[in-house]
Amino acid sequence: MAKKFRGIFPALVTPFAGGTLSETVDLDAFKGNIGVLNSIGLSGYVVLGSTGECVSLTPGESLALLRTAKTAAAPGKLVIAGTGQESTLQTIEFTNAAARLGIDAALVRPPSYFKAKMSREALRRHYLAVADAAEVPVIVYNIPQNTGVTIDPSLVVELAAHPNIAGLKESSGSVSYLEEVVAHVPKDFSYLVGSGYVILPALVLGASGAILAVANAAPAQCVGIYELFQAGKIEDAARLQLGVAPLNKAVMDTASPGSNTPCAERARTAGSSGRRSSPSTTRDARISTPS
What we know:
Helix content: 40-55%
Order of helices and strands: EEEHEHEHEHEHHEHEHEHHHH
Radius of gyration: 18 Å
CATH class: Alpha Beta
Largest sheet: 8 strands, parallel
CATH architecture: Alpha-Beta Barrel
Number of helices: 12
């Protein structure tokens, strides 16, 4: 069976409007951003990921963003929703609420508030219960730099046997992690790297694509790396990868918790200082998308 989740997916930013204490989700700007990105060869969009400030949004705002994404996405573009919550029950309920809006998969981060209790067995039970109950395919999300919880590669291999666990987004950027997983999972399991630094190395080693914050800022370049790799033009892909690396560094170094402006600054899309815990100045960036 072919992998369903292949290619490049931007982890969409969530634009905000209003002051620090009254910011609201700007659905018009969000829809406009997707309209710009529709013209590029992206495989789809990830909504409510880390770049989209999922943990800062209300359930109503989150569902509104998903409805807007489904409406704005061009035909054939997949919509993946971040649905992880702090309990198994909450995760299942929100995943299936998102499923009823027509999403194509749920990206599920591990619970992390009680991170000291998130043993391998606790994570195994959590993901299997979510996969059993979810009405859409589940993509496991390993992002230890944000959650403080690392999902062991051997557990990913075990979970990959579940018929409703379709893939992994691995955001640590560890090539050795990839090597411990890709050789031991079913052929239709999608390994999606989450670091713009290692798009090409990951593809060479067997990844099926990437979910990237930097794909908001440099979507054409990220897609170019994937397409050149698929065409066997590795040296050309390597030159693009070397060009994307400093952009990825700028995005990751400049971005702070609750700030999505750096992801939008190089694209013809709207960004903002986001929903923050401290005052900041909101900016909107609309410049030409890099070719």
